[in-house]
Every structure is written in C-alpha cells, then in structure tokens.
Amino acid sequence: MSLLKVWASTRMAAAIACGLSLSLGANALELSVLEGVVTKVIDGDTLRVQLSTGPVTVRLGEIDAPESIQAGGGAATRALDSRVLGENVSLHVLARDVDERVVAVVYLGDENINAWMVKQGHAWAYRGHARDPGYCVWENAARSLRRGLWADRHWVAPWDWRMSQRDSLFFVSDYSNASAAGCIREISQSISFDE
Q: What CATH architecture is 32-194?
C-alpha cells in the first residue's frame, strides 16, 4: 500500500472517530502536498505557484485578507509579496474552492505563511471556513498588539466588505469586541453546519 493511501486511510479513520466525514476526490487532491515556486502574489490571500505540472492559483486556506481595494488590502498584498515571491513553497492542500483554485496552507520551509499573515495583522481567521482554532488565537493577539490592519480601529471583515459591495443594505458585523473564544465558537459552529 502506498504511503498516500496509508495516510488517507489514517486520516479517514481519525475523521470517523471524530464524527466527521471527508470527501476523497478521485485525484485525492485534498490529501496532497505540492511543491512549487511562487511566481505572482495576486492579493493578500491568493498566489500563483509554478508546479512541475504547470501553474496553479492558490487560495490561502483558513484566512481571509482584506481585498486589494479595501483598507489594509494593499499592505496585505505587499507583506505576502515580500515574504514569498520567488520562493520555493510547499502547499498542504485542503480542497478546491468554487473558483477551482487550490485551497492550501502554504509553507516556506517550516513556516506556515497563512499563520504568519494573521500574526502580522494582515489577515483574519476566516469565519465559516477556518478549522484550526490557532488562527483565532493569532488574530486576537495581532489585534491586541495593533499589528497591520488592526492599527486602525475602522476595520471591516473581508467577507462583510465583499457582501456590502454586492448589497448596499447589508449591515456589516461589529468585530470591535471580538475575542479568540468568540472566533473559535464561530468556526466550531461552521464546522458542525458544514458536516
């Protein structure tokens, strides 16, 4: 049995033990680790990576950075660009999104770049999509230290900002009193709704 099949079987057993179900696609993309070079930073949570099999667009999983035209978006893009452009990275693939982008945790050596973006204050733990509560803790720490986008008190969550651009009557959420515990509660609720 190949190492990938053993790993997939182990992951499936662990998921079943935790009461979760996993979707194993025909190509088992969700179980792979891909290697490549970052050729372009599109925005604060999206990259182009050249793999040996060709280029791929990668959406950094677990996080949501401000949009390029949103307050903090330019700084997020510049931070990610200065950290990974031209670098060899590992993509720990989580899934494919609705736009067919690879959703992954990006590693530069042993460093989790997705976590780095949150710790530096350039991205949020992505409510409704994050699975790892560590992102909530790192977001809360960055907010407390007023790093990156948290230096300004007038921030809007990227998911709320996108919705407000589509619907002028959309009321954005007030995250001014957000806590790590509240964020963890939100992501744990989204996991139970998704499964």
A: Beta Barrel (2.40)
